[in-house]
Amino acid sequence: MEQKMFCFQCEQTAGCKGCTGNSGVCGKQAGIAEMQDQLTGKLIGLARTIDGNGHLISHAANQVVREGLFATITNVNFDKEALSALLRRVDEVKRQIVPLCYECTSACGKNDDYDMEHLWTAGEDIRSLKSLILFGIRGMAAYAYHAAVLGYTDPEIDHFFYKALFAVGMEDWGMDELLPIVLEVGAVNLKCMELLDKANTETYGNPVPTEVSLTVEKGPFIVISGHDLFDLKQLLEQTKDKGINIYTHGEMLPAHGYPELKKYPHLKGNFGTAWQNQQKEFASIPAPVLFTTNCLMPPKTSYADRVFTTEAVSYPGLVHIGPEKDFSPVIQKALELGGYPTAMQFTGINGGRTVTTGFGRHAVLSVADKVVKAVKSGVVRHFFLVGGCDGAKPGRSYYTEFVKQTPPDSIVLTLACGKYRFNDLDLGTVAGLPRLMDMGQCNDAYSAIQVAVALAETFSCGVNDLPLSMVLSWYEQKAVCILLTLLHLGIQNIRLGPTLPAFLSPNVLQYLAEHYHIAPITTPESDLEVLLK
Ligand code: SF4
Ligand code: SF3
Q: Which atom, in ligand 2's list, is nearest to the CA of 74?
């Protein structure tokens, strides 16, 4: 196939190598891929302009960097107009910093935009390291964006975006210069997830364990998808006393655990499973769907008039709710469609009628004594963190099987949308604790890290010495920054699937295997046998 685009940033990339034709597997057209490359190249140009001079960084620059990186994450922005607006905004910010550059007749090239072609055609190890940096900061930018929406920012995090972008544009940097920055992405992302955790918990309270119904009650309703809790809060306020129920979808499920969100009686339950099932699940629902972040799939015509976007998400032809957050068009659509005439009982993929969420770090650590006693007495033998993204590959049934086969004296912690593979299973309890605990969204990996660190302190050992195994699934770039955070913390023996990223070159992979013993998943049986040893 003629190469019209190049993108290999997500797990479903064509042939596990790269999307190169007229459009990617995700539905991103070559023209959009090109605009996203231009946008990244311009952000690198902006980082070159700033060149480590912190005093040149403005609020507007930070905003456009966060938004520009976020917009290039898989399944976020498919819209030419929205991307053009971002391209113009980067130019405006740059022009404010170096107005003379735009009039210069003997250009030195120092502040030039970067041609992403150089990255895609670089030697495989350099391309691999730069991809880890770039894809990692794309994921991190989404987290920084959500925190900023709630008024939480950190100059150290914002400044690092420029450093990382600058590194991607450095043509003569090798392994020695790039590898430390790869690990620094992990370190800064830990701070970023901490900031978002602080933003979410200080604004909406500490999550509490909550059972969530999968039944959709009769009458008008709205489904809200994505990670942005602020959007959910605005929607709950605007639908108060209107006879409209709200159902979470995908990564919005953990919202049910937050006291300041669960207090709304019309936040009724959760609809559907993970993102890759949306074209089937949305086809016939008599209700609108609002996407606040990834993962948006190209909507089928059968339901496109019922899909709305906001924030960084955009798709041509869909109504986009702007920053003033007036959700009237969504509310109007819900009233028009009217919902189901009688309650509809839906189930998870294993037939369960409810799921539970809200086991954030406060909830888990509040029973730390119980957990420690159960481990010391041998009642609980092992912890598994089975988390990450979901996706369409059949190999992902591994995660369902893995969880089903975990021994009854083990506890499974989970997070992100990969949990839909098993979160409706009834795993029962051990030592009075639920065997399956949903810690939240992908960014709540911060909670899992805090729990692991606290347990390690209690047992006076390192995190790697705990009876804890991490079995992760990845799809998009948020998983990349989380993985880098775990590596930065020195966590070993991670199992990763369903396939390894196409952007890991054999040498980079070998480095990760040697230093962190990271390995691909195999079968649930053999992985469990090895991990329980
Ligand atoms: Fe292909 Fe993934 Fe890139 Fe989409 S985001 S074009 S599926 S690699
Ligand atoms: Fe899922 Fe898209 Fe990654 Fe936040 S919603 S985890 S895939």
A: 2
Cα angle 274, 280, 285; round to 5: 100
If you search the block for the tokens 């805090």, which residue do you land on?
450
pLDDT of 59 above 60:
yes
Residue nearest to atom 2 of ligand 1 (CA): 10
The CATH number of 210-345, from 1.10.10.10, 2.30.30.30, 3.40.50.2030, 3.40.50.970, is 3.40.50.2030
Q: Which of ligand 2's atoms lies nearest the C-alpha of 391?
A: 7
Q: Do the beta carbons of residue 437 and residue 461 sit within 8 Å? A: no
Contact 399, 386 (CB under 8 A): yes
Give the atom of ligand 1 at the shortest distance from the alpha carbon of 24: 6
CA–CA distance, 270 with 249 (Å, rounded to integer): 6
Q: 442 CB under 6 A from ligand 2?
A: yes
Q: Which residue has tokens 């655990």?
A: 257
Cβ atoms 418, 389 nearer than 8 A: yes
In this prediction, residues 249-266 reach a mean pLDDT of: 98
pTM of the model: 0.97
Nearest to 305 by CA among 270, 338, 273, 337: 337
> For the chain, how big is the Rg over CA atoms in Å?
23
The architecture (CATH level 2) of 358-531 comes to 3-Layer(aba) Sandwich (3.40)
One-letter amino acid of 432: G
In 3D space, the residue among 197, 205, 165, 200 whose CA is nearest the CA of residue 181 turns out to be 165
Find out whether the beta carbon of 281 lies less than 6 Å from any atom of ligand 2. no
CB of 496 within 8 A of CB of 483?
yes
Distance 166 CA to ligand 2 centre (A): 27
* Nearest ligand for residue 476 CA: 2
Give a three-class secondary structure readout of 290-335. Answer: EECCCCCCCCCCCCHHHEEEECCCECCCCEEECCCCCCHHHHHHHH
CATH of span 14-203:
1.20.1270.20
Q: Report the mean per-residue pLDDT for the chain.
A: 97
Q: Kindly list the domain boundaries of the chain, sorted by start residue.
A: 14-203, 210-345, 358-531
* Distance from C-alpha of 249 to C-alpha of 236, rounded to nearest angstrom: 15
Residue type (1 letter), 262: K
Tokens of 515: 């230093």
5 Cα–ligand 1 center, Å: 10
Element housing 412 (H / E) = strand 410-414
Calpha distance 403→103 (Å, rounded): 61
Of the pLDDT bands very low, low, confident and very high (cuts 50, 70, 90), residue 102 is: confident
Structure confidence by residue, pLDDT tens digits, 308-323: 999 999 999 999 999 9
